[in-house]
Design brief:
The protein has about 325 residues and is an alpha/beta fold. It has 9 helices and 9 strands. About 35% of the residues are buried.
């Protein structure tokens, strides 16, 4: 088949509508800007900048879209309850945010949380990361999984699924474990409480992943089954590697200098050794996880945000309804 014909056919069959930043920005309509420059600056990650311009051109249109989705989901839930003759508590609208290590998931999640919380109805918006559902280091070490931290098998999936099930059931005071990047471990005795939010943002590496379907047809829930909308943040592998190593080097000059830090040993090596170490961790762990487990989930997202070298979102792909 002619390459041009094949490319055109692929575009016609794509489940996504693709927008440039300028095209997407027009979809903001009259959505008001509710964040100040100072607030936007505070929401940035260590190595994931976000500008006022990007909030206006990318995140405000996305906030408007999510408002439509959330309202429609409420109506569907109400129709189902009316059909069943039940009167239950409102079901939270759950948004999943996925993507590689160092791509800027946390920054995107924080920006969305602040924008959504400032909708006219002032909804209650909570944010959790799936890092808290990693198995503790002691278990990972005993199972030989420390070198696969962040891979699907390193998470306590039943506990995460139970958490999301309780959230969807509108249960009160659902607790989620807390992870510390400083100590590189789940913190025993620490938890965050999520109490019937209107919207919950769930951020994590593998939140869109599926498992092999059972041949006997049993119901096997996936984390993404609980999502009403999902976002995948995308970037080229070379950029992700650079961002990871840059962040590693910056942390080496800050948090790693504290003797209590899990990674304190890296503050005492030379710059050349540190660069080699950051690159090795990326290549042997994070790149493998990206290729095997994270990137394959990209086509499952409702929205894909593609970044360029400056962390600028230059393309938006929205799944066709």
């Amino acid at each position: 088949m002619d390459q041009k014909v094949a490319t055109a056919l692929d575009m016609d069959l794509s489940p996504y509508r693709v927008f440039t930043e300028r095209q997407w920005a027009k979809l903001r309509a009259d959505t008001p800007m509710t964040l100040s420059e100072h607030e936007v600056a505070q929401l940035q990650g260590l190595n994931a900048p976000v500008s006022m311009e990007q909030v206006e051109t990318i995140y405000l249109p996305l906030s408007r879209l999510l408002a439509f989705y959330a309202e429609a989901t409420v109506r569907i839930h109400q129709a189902t309850q009316e059909f069943l003759g039940h009167r239950e508590n409102k079901t939270p609208f759950i948004i999943g945010v996925a993507g590689s290590v160092s791509v800027g998931k946390s920054t995107t999640s924080r920006v969305l949380r602040e924008l959504l919380a400032r909708w006219p109805a002032s909804p209650k918006v909570d944010l959790i990361t799936t890092d808290g559902f990693l198995f503790p280091n002691a278990i990972l070490e005993s199972e030989g999984l420390m070198g696969k931290k962040g891979f699907p098998e390193s998470f306590d999936r039943p506990r995460l699924l139970k958490f999301l099930s309780d959230i969807k059931a509108a249960k009160r005071n659902v607790r989620a474990p807390v992870y510390s990047h400083f100590y590189y471990d789940v913190m025993p005795g620490h938890a965050v409480t999520v109490d019937r939010p209107d919207i919950l943002i769930v951020e994590g590496l593998n939140v869109l992943q599926t498992r092999e379907l059972p041949k006997d047809g049993r119901a096997v829930p996936f984390v993404s089954d609980f999502f009403d909308f999902s976002v995948y943040i995308d970037a080229d592998e070379d950029l992700l590697r650079k961002w990871y190593v840059d962040r590693f080097m910056r942390l080496r000059e800050t948090a790693f200098r504290d003797p209590s830090s899990y990674f304190h040993k890296y503050s005492r090596i030379t710059d050349e050794e540190a660069l080699a170490t950051g690159d090795r961790i990326w290549t042997e762990i994070n790149l493998v996880n990206l290729r095997e487990n994270i990137l394959p989930t990209r086509p499952r997202a409702d929205l894909i945000l593609s970044k360029n070298a400056s962390h600028h979102i230059s393309k938006v792909a929205l799944r066709k309804v």
